[in-house]
Amino acid sequence: MFSLPDSYVWDFWFADDGDRYHLFFLYASKALQDPDARHHRASVGHAVSGDLVGWKRVEDALVRSDAPAFDDLATWTGSVVRDDAGVWHMFYTGATLTAAGNVQSIGVATSEDLLTWRKSPANPILRADARWYETIADGHWHDEAFRDPFVYRQQDGTWRMLVTARAGHGQVDDRGVIATATSPDLVEWTLLPPLSQPGAGFGQLEVLNTATVDGRSVLFFSCLAPELASTRRETGSRGGVWAVVADRDGEWDPRQAHQVTGDDLYVGRVVVDRAGEPAFFAFRNAGPEGGFVGGITDPMPVRVIDGRVVAGERALDAVPVAR
């Protein structure tokens, strides 16, 4: 497990340079005393590992910018990819406080070595567009949710970004959608209408990310119980990590999402280990008595069983699945 004795550690993402795994994580000092205050003090830390178990902390990756800036409150969750020239791109969330509330947008930093990062002067590169997405001006949510960029390469060579956002219409507690943008080169981005519609049962789909598990395309996201729509809360659903296995057309429908963990774990991600096997990670969220814990788990086995994602000890005993 990766943790820091003097800091809260929560959201995280990975990069693999072929030799070492790089863990990027949000952290804030425990001197705050209140774990909920960590979100407005978040910086992006960095650790490296050869086996996904033993981690060595190195210099931080990103900190907030001086005001005024789109990320002058905090730097939040993102993802890292490498372009064809070998340059690494970290897409991340910038948060700023306005008179109306917390506004989030997407920025990018680049690096030659995954250690020294330079923010783009063009930041922010994407903002919520009121044609498709709810903004702070709508006044229906506690912030302008447009964060957690996850970038991956599509089969045709273009790049796609998934973003946590809310639709500008629908039942207020059920507006969570998968925002998306595409790019030919990781530089010029085109924001598009969402890949999903409101009404899936979530106020927001946090930290969207994809992985291939047992030959199936899986979309992971997280949602805490207070952000579940009333329709899901009434069924007894709790907060935690959720997953959707793609249908025959390769599309993910959040209405078909199922829980992978309870609220003890949050932000599920999958990394392929050196043996070629998928490994599931999450951060420790709620303890037995409900308080925040923090720290990132060791790798856990993950499988797709009868169309559902199973992670952790249960996956070890699962019936093998034909690949």
UniProtKB/TrEMBL annotation:
Domain Glycosyl hydrolase family 32 N-terminal residues, every copy: 19-232
Keyword Hydrolase: yes
Keyword presence, Cytoplasm: no
Keywords: Glycosidase, Hydrolase
Molecular function (Gene Ontology), one example: hydrolase activity
Ranges in a coiled coil: none
Enzyme Commission designation: 3.2.1.26
A Pfam family this chain is assigned to: Glyco_hydro_32N
InterPro entries (alphabetical): GH32_Enzymes, Glyco_hydro_32, Glyco_hydro_32_N, Glyco_hydro_beta-prop_sf
Family in the record: Belongs to the glycosyl hydrolase 32 family.
Protein name as annotated: beta-fructofuranosidase
